[in-house]
Design brief:
Blueprint: H1 7-20, H2 25-37, H3 41-54, H4 59-71, H5 75-86, H6 93-105, H7 109-120, H8 127-143, H9 147-160, H10 165-177, H11 181-202, H12 204-224, H13 228-248, H14 253-259
Helix pairs in contact: 1-2, 2-3, 3-4, 4-5, 4-6, 5-6, 6-7, 6-8, 7-8, 8-9, 8-10, 9-10, 10-11, 10-12, 11-12, 12-13, 13-14
């Protein structure tokens, strides 16, 4: 019930559920996500703090709380959580995955890479989770200008989970940086085909954002290929999708970012 355009319905559902299970950490986490979608960072942090208080051993919740702190421009609050996640056992996939994400968000790419390498090496990790770490490494290498490393990371993620659309987008972005617009368009098309499956796992909101980004990147690739008319149409589509997302939820920060 938490898709865009259904936020009021989702909030009503959560209010009813909270009356029955006021100490359920999952409900507080859902409330945090809903508050974030409404661009209410203070409420999002408060609800995630309650989530962590109720389930202190859950690395995912602690990592999300730290990311909320970073969104509030409170790196001093996020730092001890990142340090604790880094200190976790090398077999704790989620702790090192989230530590890598936190460090990357803070601009510490060297240590982020080290954490994601630990996560990617955890034995018997589910393929979808492994793809998260591998694609994260691809993003870090791309930010560092190592396109070969980025391609390898994204390709490994796709090998782990063929429907992990962000990795397919990453392969397209690398191809575009390398001056290969046809290869970029092929990867973007593959990512677009994977969006439904991706959304069924990670949520319609994330798929919607990725669709907006994909249309924008297709515009750039088409322009690089000399198709100015197609490029203009793709950019118009990206802007229309972003406006539709904002019409459904005017406070959604990610949609504002997508619209620029």
């Amino acid at each position: 019930a938490s898709g865009q355009g259904n936020l009021a319905e989702a909030e009503n559902y959560l209010d009813q559920a909270m009356r029955l299970r006021p100490d359920d950490p999952a409900l507080h986490a859902a409330r945090s996500n809903l508050a974030y979608q409404r661009c209410n960072l203070d409420r999002a942090v408060l609800e995630m703090e309650r989530t962590v208080a109720l389930a202190p051993d859950d690395a995912a919740n602690r990592g999300i709380l730290a990311l909320r702190y970073l969104a509030q421009d409170r790196p001093e609050a996020a730092a001890p959580i990142a340090a604790a996640l880094q200190a976790a056992s090398d077999s704790d996939f989620m702790a090192h995955l989230l530590a890598g994400s936190l460090l990357a968000s803070s601009g510490d790419l060297r240590n982020a890479e080290a954490e994601l390498r630990i996560a990617a090496s955890v034995a018997e990790t589910a393929p979808l989770l492994l793809a998260l770490a591998q694609a994260g490494l691809g993003e870090i290498y791309q930010q560092q200008g190592d396109l070969a490393g980025a391609r390898a990371g994204y390709a490994a993620a796709v090998a782990s989970n063929a429907a992990y659309a962000p990795a397919l987008v990453g392969l397209g972005d690398v191809a575009l940086e390398e001056g290969q617009p046809a290869a970029a368009l092929a990867s973007y098309d593959a990512a677009n085909a994977a969006l439904a499956t991706y959304g069924s796992v990670f949520g319609g909101d994330q798929a919607q954002l990725l669709a907006i980004y994909l249309a924008s990147r297709r515009s750039l690739a088409l322009a690089a290929a000399g198709d100015d008319a197609g490029s203009a149409l793709a950019q118009t589509a990206a802007e229309a999708q972003a406006r539709a997302a904002l019409a459904a939820n005017p406070a959604w920060p990610d949609a504002h970012f997508a619209l620029g």
